[in-house]
Design brief:
- The chain has helices at 4-36, 48-55, 59-72, 90-111, 117-135, 139-156, 160-170, 184-200, 204-228; strands spanning 75-78, 82-85.
- By secondary structure, it is mainly α.
- The longest helix has 33 residues, at 4-36.
- The protein is elongated, with a radius of gyration of 20 Å.
- The chain starts with a helix and ends in an 11-residue tail after the last helix.
Length: 239
């Protein structure tokens, strides 16, 4: 006989632990987007109280999230003073997108030999919703549907470890302002149908190339946005 009180308590414990683990990630994502979208400039102090208030969390997950970002190189911890935003170069941005492009391109190539007709139909449905979101300028839907489109392809590749590596890389890329990057959404409307056709005809190299180019084009959009918002004073040379 199952003691439901114990089961319920265990489920609640797991739920609370999961939420505690997710809070620092939410903080890191929020601050990372502030830095990548140039709302926070290099050298700006990142006060924990405003961040905690904006996200409705305590100071503990804020500190944990900022420490995670210091390991990623997005912020620096100055002893006895706090956290400051680190500089992000154009080469840093290109390296982040290049890393994602390599993983996602390989997953798309593997998916080309395994994807099912049902998956293709779902991709077409998602893309129709994506186009509708673009036409109506619904930014959140544009972002979510774009992620859903590529997530389905990644799952079709049936390569769990590679997908986890991709997820780790994606966490360091901008999210909330991604849909608003000038020109990228328009390009995406053409990229998605071409990628669907490459998968339908089981062409792994074309699927790889289209995916890599699609992602790398995003780097140019981010760099244009960051330059326009004065993250870089002039034409920065890549390292």
């Amino acid at each position: 006989m199952v003691d439901h009180s114990i089961t319920t308590g265990h489920d609640r414990f797991r739920s609370n632990r999961s939420r505690r683990e997710q809070l620092p990630e939410a903080v890191a994502s929020y601050v990372r987007d502030l830095i990548m979208s140039s709302q926070v400039k290099p050298g700006d102090f990142l006060r924990m109280e405003p961040i905690a208030e904006a996200l409705g969390v305590s100071s503990t997950p804020v500190r944990e999230g900022l420490l995670a970002l210091s390991n990623e190189g997005f912020v620096k911890l100055i002893p006895r003073r706090g956290f400051v935003a680190a500089s992000v170069s154009q080469q840093d941005v290109r390296d982040l997108f290049w890393t994602q492009a390599q993983f996602a391109g390989e997953l798309a190539a593997r998916a080309a030999s395994k994807i099912t007709p049902a998956d293709i139909a779902r991709l077409e449905s998602i893309n129709e919703q994506f186009k509708e979101a673009v036409d109506n300028d619904v930014q959140n839907d544009i972002t979510e549907l774009g992620h859903a489109f590529h997530r389905l392809i990644n799952r079709a590749a049936e390569s769990r470890r590679l997908s986890l590596l991709l997820s780790s890389a994606v966490k360091q890329l901008p999210n909330r302002f991604y849909a608003s990057i000038e020109g990228h959404v328009t390009a995406t409307r053409g990229d998605h149908p071409e990628l669907i056709e490459a998968l339908r005809f089981r062409d792994p190299e074309l699927a790889r190339t289209l995916t890599e180019n699609h992602i790398l084009d995003g780097a140019d959009g981010v760099i244009r946005t960051m330059r326009a918002r004065s993250s870089w004073g002039g034409r920065e040379k890549t390292r």
